[in-house]
From TrEMBL:
Family matches, as Pfam families: Cation_efflux, ZT_dimer
Similarity-based family: Belongs to the cation diffusion facilitator (CDF) transporter (TC 2.A.4) family.
Annotated PANTHER family: MITOCHONDRIAL METAL TRANSPORTER 1-RELATED (PTHR43840)
Transmembrane segments: 7-29, 41-59, 75-93, 113-131, 152-171
Matching SUPFAM superfamilies: Cation efflux protein cytoplasmic domain-like, Cation efflux protein transmembrane domain-like
Membrane topology reported for the UniProt record: Multi-pass membrane protein
InterPro entries in the cross-refs: Cation_efflux (IPR002524), Cation_efflux_CTD (IPR027470), Cation_efflux_CTD_sf (IPR036837), Cation_efflux_TM (IPR058533), Cation_efflux_TMD_sf (IPR027469), CDF_Transporter (IPR050291)
Compartments, record wording: Membrane
Domain Cation efflux protein transmembrane: 11-202
Keywords on record: Membrane, Transmembrane, Transmembrane helix, Transport
Domain Cation efflux protein cytoplasmic, first and last residues per copy: 207-284
Name of the molecule in the record: Cation diffusion facilitator family transporter
Length: 295
């Protein structure tokens, strides 16, 4: 079992624990805002399951039907998370509206709030684990799950403060108002998760920092070549795809050109483990005098 799978399974158990605590918090108080917090936790559990499935599918090796692998499965999972986050936000807005129409006095607020704080602390810790682990293992599904959880932690903090103010001031309308604000924050979180994942599905290029690393690596290790041009990149989950044209001198033999390509590929994979690299070798009259000049 891979490290990403272990983290994804951990998310399911943490999500169930937090859901139970937040549901208890709502049951004790009857707060609409705390109910909205619990509803978001149901989405956390569902998205954790979706992330685990996507990670397992993405880990499958390439086959005849999918010669480039299954890496984009994680992006689909992240888009699904975004959709589910938005659905949860709409459900919360519905509950907030009913709370505005029928405000009620909260029961046992202190005990419910303390339970919610404990649940938020657990979420905050696991959010850090997800984002850190997702970036280390280059898993869009885990990073998306972590950012979603971060929005949950922030909104939970606002809910606790708002419910406390509603109790202290006696303004019951603050409770559904906070629920509505939580819903708007969740909507924004869902949009961000979907936007970042859609860029991956659209074969977005690697970051400028990574692109600079690729250029300098080619320049430093393609000794015997003249230049590299038409460099293209894209990323799919943990995989980076790189292809470019490498111009060599006319008298270079096939074996010599092959050795240059091997050297460049090995250097690139040292910086980007598991990168899929395609190099098209061309004679010197194809040089464009642009792109990456070899030192």
């Amino acid at each position: 079992m891979s490290a990403t799978e272990r983290i994804a399974i951990g998310s399911i158990f943490v999500g169930l624990l937090v859901l139970g605590l937040k549901a208890l918090s709502w049951w004790l108080t009857g707060s609409v805002a705390l109910l909205s917090d619990a509803l978001e936790s149901t989405v956390n559990v569902a998205t954790a399951v979706a992330a685990l499935i996507a990670i397992r599918v993405a880990a499958k090796p390439a086959d005849r039907g999918h010669p480039y692998g299954h890496h984009k499965a994680e992006f689909f999972s992240a888009v699904l998370e975004g959709v589910m986050i938005i659905v949860a936000a709409l459900l919360i807005l519905r509950e907030a509206w009913h709370g505005f129409l029928n405000p009620r006095v909260l029961d046992a607020p202190l005990g419910g709030l303390l339970i919610n704080v404990v649940a938020s602390c657990i979420n905050g810790w696991w959010c850090w684990v997800l984002i850190r682990g997702g970036r280390r293992h280059r898993s869009p599904a885990l990073v998306a799950d972590g950012h979603h959880l971060l929005s949950d932690v922030i909104s939970s903090g606002g809910v606790v403060v708002g419910v406390a103010l509603a109790v202290l001031t006696g303004w019951s309308v603050l409770d559904p108002a906070l629920a509505a604000l939580v819903a708007l924050n969740i909507l924004w979180s869902g949009w961000r998760v979907m936007a970042s994942s859609l860029s991956g599905l659209m074969d977005e290029a690697v970051s400028e920092e990574t692109l600079d690393t690729i250029r300098s690596t080619i320049s430093d290790h393609a000794t015997g070549a003249i230049e590299a041009h038409d460099l293209r990149t894209r990323h799919a989950g943990p995989k980076t795809f790189i292809d470019f044209h490498l111009v060599v001198e006319g008298q270079t033999t096939v074996e010599q050109a092959h050795d240059i390509c091997d050297r460049v590929e090995q250097a690139l994979r040292a910086h980007l483990p598991g990168a899929q690299i395609t190099i098209h070798v061309e004679p010197e009259h194809k040089a464009k005098h642009s792109g990456v000049l070899v030192i």
